[in-house]
Structure formats: C-alpha cells, structure tokens
Write a structure and sequence with these properties.
Blueprint lengths: L3 E9 L12 H16 L5 E7 L2 E8 L6 H20 L24 E8 L4 E9 L7 H9 L6 H4 L7 E7 L4 E7 L3 H8 L5 E8 L4 E6 L4 H5 L9 E5 L7 H5 L7 E4 L5 E4 L1 E2 L15 E10 L2 E2 L10 E2 L7 H16 L18 H8 L7
Parallel strand pairs: 13-14
Antiparallel strand pairs: 1-3, 1-4, 2-3, 5-10, 5-14, 6-7, 6-8, 8-9, 9-10, 11-12, 14-15, 14-16
Helix pairs in contact: 1-2
The structure holds fructose -6-phosphate and magnesium ion (2 copies).
Length: 373
C-alpha cells in the first residue's frame, strides 16, 4: 500500500484592507504562526498561506484524512483569531464569512470554503490549487470541463492511452442539495446541459474513469442557501492533480489563456470576466474586481509539500507569467464593455441571483401606483 496523504485547502474572508480588497499582513502573520505551531506539534506536515483577494487561504498537507475534526478546528480557530485581530484593527468586513460561533467538528457549512483530497501518493504527484475572489464555485465549471472532457484543450484525452477511458464528474445541485455522477465522453452533452447553469450546478469532484483515481475537488457551498439569506461570500477553491495519465499542468492551465465570464464581482450581483493573476496582483480593485484567480503548483513528497534546502515548501506561482497576459488584457476589455452597461442585464445578474437588491422595496413603494394595463 502506498502512502496516503491529504491536501486540505480551506479559505475564509476574515476581514480586509481598504474594503474588500486584500488580506493584510497582520492576518497572514496569525495564520502563518498557527500553522507553523501545528506543524511543530505534528498535526500537519507543512503548509502554505496565501490569499485570493480578500480571502485568506490555508493550504495544509497532512495524513489525517478528509474532514478531520482537528484539521478543521485548526482552520476554524485560525480564522477566528484573525477575525478578532481584524476587528481590533477595524479592518473591513471582520469575520464576514464565519457563520456560527461554536465549532462542531466540521468547518463545512460554517462559512469557510473547503476543498480536500486524500491521495495515494504516486511516484511523483504534481498538484495545482486554485483560489478565486469575487465569484463562486460555478466559476470552475467551464475550466474543469475543458481540462477533463474537452479533447480540443487536453491533448492527453486523444493521445495518452491512460486517459482514453475518460473522466467521471460529480455534479452538485446546490438548489436541491442533490448530486449526480456523469461520465465523459459518453455523457458529455448531459454534463454540459447541467454545468452550463453555473449558478446552480457545480462540479464537486472528478475521477479518472478507468480506476476511479481522484483528480479534482472543489468547494461548492452556497452560503445564502445554508443561511437562508444573503451572508458571507462563496469565493471558491479547487485542488487538481496532474500528469502521468492525468491532464498535464500545461493542460490544466490552458483554459486560462482566455478570459471568460463568471458571476460575482461588485456586490456579488454582476457578470464579470475572470482575470488569472500572480500572487502579487491577487487583489481586487476596479468595481471590486475584475474577479481574480490565482494558481499555485507544488509537488507532494512523502506526506508533505516538497521542500527546498532551507526546509521551505516549494511553490510555483503559475499565473505569474506572460502566457496569461492576453487573458488579462481580454478581462480588462470585457470589464470595460460590461461596465459601460451599468445596471442593465446581462451586465447585472438576473433578479433571483443578485446578492444585493432593492427590487422588493421599490415594488412595495410603487405598489399603489401600478394600475391595470
Ligand atoms: C463582493 C464583495 C464586494 C462588496 C461591496 C459592497 O463579493 O465583497 O463587492 O459586496 O464592496 O460591500 P459592503 O456592502 O460591505 O459595503
Ligand atoms: Mg470581503
Ligand atoms: Mg472574497
């Protein structure tokens, strides 16, 4: 039996600097310190702390399996402590994604976004993790389809015999809280019919069909559904496994050579173009965006993230590269085009999907003035 290793990526907006712009240094320091202590105690093996805009992202590698209460508590306590610091500093939106006060064993459903994957380590296991700000989990539907099902994106589907059997997708119906598994290429049209509805159906897991090898997992919460009203944000995270009979890192990144539209952006109520960026530009500005996505690459080695000579986890900032300049340029062109339309659909989301709306109040105010036509 090969070694089992778990990758946990848990994120939360605990408060940010200058509105919903970026995670500031004092909050990073708390996360770094807590995860370092957890490493020293042997709870996790190593970690990387990073940010997607105003979301604090804890990437932890350990051997405790998925949904482990100690790992989830570590994340919860870290977010709580960072939120308290944010409150003390009067940062913006302190603790905005923390729904309840008492931790009950699993952080899922309590506000933070979670993606976890337990793997049996292969000879070499390259991993890419994604974090996005000002959008929701449906933002990964389109690239996941292209990576694991589109032969025009992923050459391996056509020319690597290990991938010829295709991939299986687990789709969550976030409205009715149900899930279904569809296999590609056989059920590709059914898959697209569902996941094209990005606001409702979201890909939660992907496996290689021939041996059920897990190869991708994403956070698929809709906080508004959990809390039955609009609270917090669903800015998503995703873990993808690469190479040697799975899509290559380059095939995983290819869908991001172009921008595409996602829901979110200002007040969670607009369509906006995704902008793939390096960590340096992982901060939202224009109209609170455009929605940004970062991608980090690393290797799993003997239960941890492979380290350099100084014992530091080695990480590649994958979108920090001229290859994504065109996508960033397209994002800006599309952003200006959409913003010219102001609050007119389709720049603005439909009334059911808006996180903020005054429509009810307006209709109430005008109630008496509406006459039969
Ligand atoms: C979207 C987001 C921001 C805020 C906007 C208004 O996910 O976080 O666009 O919705 O800045 O924020 P408030 O209502 O806090 O002033
Ligand atoms: Mg925020
Ligand atoms: Mg956010």
């Amino acid at each position: 039996m090969s070694r089992k290793t778990t990758i946990s990526l848990i994120k939360c907006d605990v408060g940010s600097l200058a509105g919903h712009h970026v995670v500031p240094q004092p909050l990073f320091k708390i996360a770094e310190r807590n995860l370092q202590q957890a490493s020293e105690k042997g709870l996790i093996n190593n970690h990387i702390v990073f940010n997607a805009g105003d979301d604090l992202e804890l990437l932890m590698v350990h051997e405790k399996g998925e949904a482990n209460p100690d790992i989830h508590k570590l994340a919860w306590d870290t977010f709580k402590e960072a939120a308290n610091k944010a409150l003390e500093l009067k940062l913006y939106g302190a603790g905005q994604d923390l729904l309840k006060t008492a931790f009950s064993g699993n952080i899922r459903g309590m506000g933070p976004g979670v993606a976890e994957m337990e793997i049996e380590e292969r000879g070499s296991d390259p991993i890419v993790v994604f974090g996005a700000d000002k959008t929701s989990a449906g933002a990964f539907n389109f690239p996941l389809f292209r990576i694991f099902a589109d032969p025009m994106n992923t050459a391996g589907l056509v020319i690597d015999p290990n991938m010829a059997g295709g991939f299986k997708f687990e789709i969550m119906d976030t409205l009715e809280n149900k899930k279904v598994v569809l296999k590609c290429p056989e059920e590709m049209y059914e898959l697209i019919a569902l996941i094209g509805t990005v606001q409702r159906y979201m890909i939660s897991r992907v496996w290689r069909a021939r041996d059920d090898l897990i190869c991708a997992t994403g956070s698929v919460t809709r906080l508004s559904q959990i809390a039955v009203k609009y609270v917090g944000k669903d800015d998503p995270v995703m873990i993808v496994r690469a190479q040697h009979g799975l899509p290559a890192v380059g095939e995983i990144l290819s869908p991001f050579m172009h921008s595409y539209l996602v829901e979110g952006w200002m007040r969670g109520s607009h369509w906006g173009p995704i902008m793939p960026v390096g960590l340096e530009d992982s901060k939202c500005t224009a109209f609170d965006g455009p929605p940004r996505m970062v991608a980090l690459g690393f290797q799993i080695a003997n239960g941890e993230i492979a380290k350099d000579d100084d014992g530091k986890p080695m990480v590649a900032d994958l979108f920090n590269d001229p290859a994504f300049e065109l996508a960033r340029h397209e994002a800006l062109e599309n952003a200006t085009m959409l913003r010219r339309m102001g609050e007119f659909e389709p720049a603005r989301l439909g009334p059911q999907e808006m996180e903020y709306t005054t429509l009810g109040q307006i209709l109430e105010k005008l109630k008496e003035r509406f006459k039969p036509a």
